[in-house]
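Consider the following assembly input.
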Amino acid sequence: MDLDTLVKKLSEKVDYVEIRQESYDGNFIQMRNGELVKVQMPKESGYCIRILSNGVWGFVSSTDFAKIKAMAKKALNIVKISQGKKIEINKQSISGKFKNKVKIKPQDVSIEEKIRFVEASDKLLRNFDKRIKSSNVVYVDGSRKKNIIDSFGNEVEETIYRVRFLVSARAKQGNIIQESFKTYGKCLGYETIQKLDLENFCNKVSSEALKLLKAMPAPAGRFDIIADQELAGVFIHEAVGHACEADNLLYDTTILKNKINEKIGSELLTVIDEPRFPEFGAYYVDEEGMKAEKTVLIDQGIFKNFMTDLETSTKFGLPLTGNARALSYDNEPLVRMSCTYIDNGSWTFEEILEDMKNGIYLAGFKGGQVNPAEGTFLFTAKSGSLIKNGELVKKLKDVSIGGVTLKVLKNVDAVANDLQFKDGLCGKDSQNIPNTTGGPHIRVRNVLIGGR
Amino acid sequence: MLEKIVKQALKKGVDKAEVFYQSSKNFSYSTVKDKLEKISSSFEQGFGLRVIIGKKIGFAYTTNKIEKLVSSAIKICKNSKPLELKPVFPSKLKPGKTVFDKRFLNLSEKDCHETIKRTLNGLKKTKARPVEVSFSYTFNHFSIANSEGINCKDSSTSVILSLEAKVENSTFSDFQYSRNLDIQPEKLGEEVGMHAKDSSKAKMIRTGKEILLYPKVFSGLLTFTILPSFFADNVQKHQSLFEDKLNKKIFSKRITLVDDGLMHDGFRTFRFDGEGATPSKKFVVKEGTLKTFLYDCYTALKEGRDTTGNALRKNFRNVPSISHTNLLMKGENYSFENLVEQIKDGLYVRSILGAFLSNPTTADFSVKLDLGYEIKNGGIVRPVKNVMLAGNMLKILERPLMISKETLLAGSPADASTYGTPGQILPWISTDLIKVSI
């Protein structure tokens, strides 16, 4: 039975059907301290059937294509218990094939060449200084192809090529050990790896690890801060972006409920989610087969839009933004961000810094966690510096910053004009998906820093 | 089938080969608030093949292209850098126990729906509102075969019940997980509801320095600061806090840590480890002294000793890597109430954000309090939240204040359907070495 016929048969019994097939072909190389610890060339394929019946979603997935008819029966069975209300999904017609343009497909480059690249990076990291005691280099690439057909007669196919490169170096002096890391990821082909200034990239990481050896622990308490582009981008992703994911409205777990068109932050803040190529988090169509859209989340401090999927757009009467993303065929789509960033302001970074008598400069992002219902967040910067009289005076380490989102947004009083983007992975419900954050330097008054 | 793949690999010239097969069936029921709205069933199976040629080892996996598996693994092997020594696979296995609860086989959709209702009923008593209840159980069947004569099968069951609840704008969530169908839905409902209510009243208050950690909080901090230093691969790569500290005192005499791959009903109890080696029970730390690191076959070979059966494999897509099995910390003879009674001015930390951001090279951590309770003169006074907590786990374990007798299964339930992270059984522990900032 072909898929079109299967979808037609299923849709006679339920309100909405979607079948997504995926295949993935990638490479993963990791070298630690000159030793190749992992070389993998994963190749996977599978499918899922997603159905909606009387308000209940049934989802089945399998790696076994031979059993698709049986899986379809299972999907029908599991929604039988539903006694809920029918939801009228209103889906536009979209069909087509999408693929990001690359000059060199990653799978056309030999594994040997990629291993040589990783080896070269590893040597650069460790040879920088004898105090660099260990190094870790990871290279990942992949092509992900998905094909989605649904009960509206839509069919889309998308192929995305991605590459990502991560390096870290650990420095040791006496009993002090500090680590620094840097990543580079894009929806591009291998040509972007070839164009990297590898020496500069790796030297920055090693040198930062050495600087952290002499850094002081961060003080604890409330400070005015400047966040660099990487940290500003992650702040907006963690503290605001997640609260703008409309599935939170289903669970009533967002501080932004009923706040559309309300002023929630400084008028200097405009925040956008946009799957823009070639950034790492970009895509053409989401996992419901809907076109990816640019969404203005906050416009000069005013909350404008949630990011939505079919269900939330229908249930809450919100514009459909094409943000339903899933990690792979065995995951249900959830409302997720793509490339979320603070738009440029009018200050320069130098102007912001000169204007500060006392404060802390926070650079880079190590990790973070957020509670969208409560509107609280925590994250850790890679490093910091004490600011005294408009200058960066002392290097700081282990700087954590936490707070209440809406308070912090209102305390942004300067936004620079030096927007930069950063690749990453965002986790939600155990699905770690490619993602981009971005921002210019921003200044925030009166922020809680956790230190010792 | 597995032996066929091993033979095929040997025929193509490899020195040794190992195949790991896994098939996994998961059933999951989730609510949106109090209505069951998401039901899913997933099936996956795959093979992971490791081959050794001289000092090189290569790994490939597939979900359905078995004919290409051997050639992929050999290609990767040939492209790998040679290791210091010729790697090995185990050649003898004394299978350990398994945990497979047959009651899962008879679970109907109605039963699953009923479990969710019972959780919601427990919650109703507290007047907190449900955000999401999720009930998910998994059957795992796996087998391993290698060229050294190992050939063994295992089957396991596991379940996670999770609940997130809300009072006003404050939420609280918690989980129960088990390898058996021994969950307590009403109890989860009541506890989470109570904490959600407390969270809505919690304030950011500067408290005193005597800090009491809930076992799951202790687990999160331990996992991301201290535990990687017990893994032999980190030791051999000079990335351990305890290099050169074997048989030396690293913690207070009051701390004993046992790694037990044979534990009855243990969350990480399986018949064999990720390489097909025999699971074992051993002291990692005995009365403060470091007794052993945790080894797999290769790290053991480098030191001329046997593996400790600590190669854990997440699933067929991954090579085995070193981790603890069931890690138990022995308690002392005090109840939770005793620990609270001893605190004049302090804080009971019930849940935190950000443990994974801790620093394993120094054992420093800096986390945010999600929910805690101020303790004054031996009694719990009021709920607290959003303060920052910073400290060093090594220093805390060198000089803990009090340790409870009672322990709890702790660890994140993420990926609990596979080998997963739950697997620490820890007590409540108090310290005066954590700084609180507001």
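Chain B touches chain A through 70 residues (CB under 8 Å). Ask yourself how this observation constrains the way the partners meet.
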